[in-house]
Amino acid sequence: ETVLTQSPDTLSLSPGERATLSCRASQSVSSYLAWYQQKPGQAPRLLIYDASSRATGTPLRFSGSRSGTDFTLTISSLEPEDFAVYYCQQRSTRPPFTFGQGTKVEIK
Amino acid sequence: QLVESGGGVVQPGKSLRLSCAVSGFTFSTYGMHWVRQAPGKGLEWVAVTSHDGSSEDYADSVKGRFTISRDNSGNRLYLQMNSLSAEDSAVYYCARQQYVRDAFDVWGQGTVVTVSS
Q1: Which stretches does DSSP call E strand in chain A?
Q2: Chain-chain contact of B109 with A100 (C-beta, under 8 angstroms)
Q3: How large is the C-alpha radius of gyration of chain A?
Q4: Tens digit of each residue's pLDDT (9 = 90 or more) over B12-51
Q5: Which residues of B touch A55 (CB under 8 A)?
Q6: What is the Cα–Cα distance from A75 to B41, expressed in whole angstroms?
């Protein structure tokens, strides 16, 4: 079973700071990892797909990268609307689709 | 656009059918999924159906109890949920799988299922 582990669970930062979110896969997986943003009471929104491609409407301050089984979402300079929960997701063998447990980015 | 319906309060052991009405794109081209989120918890993938309904797969937690299906002529996705338990209480989202990719690029607003006696 593929498990995606996100770190940290909570990131406390101020607007304008850089945010670095991590997602580690328990086994070697494809590069087709996605990142989602979810705000309270809303559905998730796709930000990044294929590890580093921005979805339509994703601001340039969001970027994704991969190093082996480690994936990173970087927000270069936090805007007030970026404080939310972020999930990584990947296609795997079993289960066929997996989400990480989420990282909450909160205002410090 | 994806619009879910059919959620509500149901007793343990009972059944419920969720529906997702699709508009704005060619439904029959895309794989479709159900994803759920228990109160205060993270996202859990539930089920997928291929673009033509010929194949499907499920999370182990729902396999044998839930059935995903689709009506491409009516632009609707369904989730039949049987033998419900409290652990199935969640917001259920339908989501579109990107064309030839593995991310979910369009989501509904969700429908709430509460399993309680």
Answers
A1: 4-7, 10-13, 19-25, 33-38, 45-49, 53-54, 62-67, 70-75, 85-91, 97-99, 103-107
A2: no
A3: 13
A4: 999 999 999 999 999 999 999 999 999 999 999 999 999 9
A5: 103, 105
A6: 23
